[in-house]
Amino acid sequence: MQGFIGSVDSTHFCFLLDTLCKYGHVKVAVEVFNKRKFSFVPNVRMYTVLICGWCKLGRLDMAEKFLREMDEKGIEPNVVTYNVLLDGICRRQRRARLQPEHKFEKTIVLAEQVFDEMRQRGIEPDVTSFSIVLRFPR
Predict the structure, then answer these.
(1) Contacts with 34 (C-beta within 8 Å, 6 or more apart), sequence order
(2) Whole-number Å distance between alpha carbons of 138 and 125
(3) C-alpha span between 95 and 98 (Å, rounded)
(4) Where are the PPR repeats (predicted)?
(5) Phi/psi at 48 (nearest 5 deg)?
(6) Separation CA 108–CA 125 (nearest Å)
(7) SS3 breakdown of the chain: % helix, strand, coil, rounded to 5?
(8) Are 70 and 44 in contact (CB under 8 A)?
(9) Nearest CA to 32 among 70, 82, 44, 19?
(10) Cβ count near 118 (within 10 Å)
(11) Distance of alpha carbon 60 from alpha carbon 85, whole angstroms
(12) Pairwise CA distance, residues 64 & 88, whole Å
């Protein structure tokens, strides 16, 4: 990567991760992140970008793995990180509209767990947090 563009700061690195994720190349973004995370101090923005990428692919398991990794590294998630996770949970419900009613209930339980975790960490849900939950189909 440095051979192409010279020195890269964490903002540019995050932009690269974001672009890869937006175009569906989350696995590539994770590979780049894992290879280069020792060159930069990983921050909440980098992790949030990766969590968002996994959520867009419907891989909440991987999104939650990165959330746990953040915690292990002492990086505090913020309201944006949790909003991305909430959106991923609700997107999964939108995709599963034809599924049984228990999917809806499971989505509500997962969303409540995210809200609880936010409050435990002292992060108040914002307008976006509530909007994400309110707009998904029942």
Answers:
(1) none
(2) 21
(3) 8
(4) 43-77
(5) -65, -40
(6) 16
(7) 70, 0, 30
(8) yes
(9) 19
(10) 22
(11) 8
(12) 11
* Total residue length of the chain: 138
Q: What is the Cα–Cα distance from 75 to 88, expressed in whole angstroms?
A: 21
Q: Token pair of 138, please?
A: 């029942």
Q: What is the mean pLDDT of residues 124-135?
A: 91
Tell me the pLDDT tens digit for each residue of 35-52.
988 888 899 999 999 999
In tens, the pLDDT along 74-113 reads 999 999 999 999 999 988 766 655 555 667 778 888 889 9
Picking from 36, 28, 113, 32, the residue whose alpha carbon sits closest to that of residue 67 is 113
Q: Which amino acid is at 34?
A: N
Backbone angles phi, psi at 15, to 5 degrees: -60, -40
Nearest to 85 by CA among 127, 56, 121: 56
From residue 35, alpha-carbon distances to 1, 43, 76 in Å are 11, 15, 22
- Distance between CA atoms of residues 8 and 12, nearest Å: 6
